[in-house]
Amino acid sequence: MRKHVVVMGVSSCGKSTVGELLAQRTGLPFRDGDDMHPAANIEKMASGQALSDLDRQPWLESIGRFLAEHEDGAVVGCSALKHSYREIIRAAAPDTVFVHLHGPYELLKERMSHRVGHFMPVSLLNSQFETLEDLRPEEAGLVLDVSAAPEELAAEAAQYLQS
Hints:
The longest helix has 17 residues, at 53-69. It contains 7 helices and 5 strands; from the N terminus they run βαβααβαβααβα. The N and C termini lie close together (7 Å). The protein has a 5-stranded parallel β-sheet, with helices on both faces. Helix content is 47%, strand content 14%. The protein has helices at residues 15-26, 39-46, 53-69, 83-92, 105-113, 125-131, 150-162; strands spanning 4-8, 30-32, 74-77, 97-102, 141-145. It is globular, with a radius of gyration of 15 Å. It has 163 residues and is an alpha/beta fold. The mean pLDDT is 90. It has one domain: Rossmann fold, CATH 3.40.50.300. Its EC number is 2.7.1.12.
């Protein structure tokens, strides 16, 4: 079984929910990447400004370190929108597998508009879609449609990790 997993995608795709369910199914610890952002990143996003690659780099490095420190494996929810971001994570944890939760803009915008107490405003969703780069054929991972129930997505991801 693959042990280092990043559940990725744009805001409101279900990274935290599916990540926690996947962690439960696999017996691995879960960490929400949102909780690993430096305060300056959270303040910037909360004010409606998209993060730059420079803003993201220390955060992505910390996610890679977290995975590497968990030799027995771990699951992290992290947007990991660009190939270069995923490369930063893989520099520390080369065997990382990405589970990309993908869905249409309107569905995710609707979900986002109902979230309470999260720092990411709906106004930044478009910038995330513009930044998103699909997994490349050489990247270990799979793409799941977020229209399915979170339990189904976690089950499918767990099955993939077992193969």
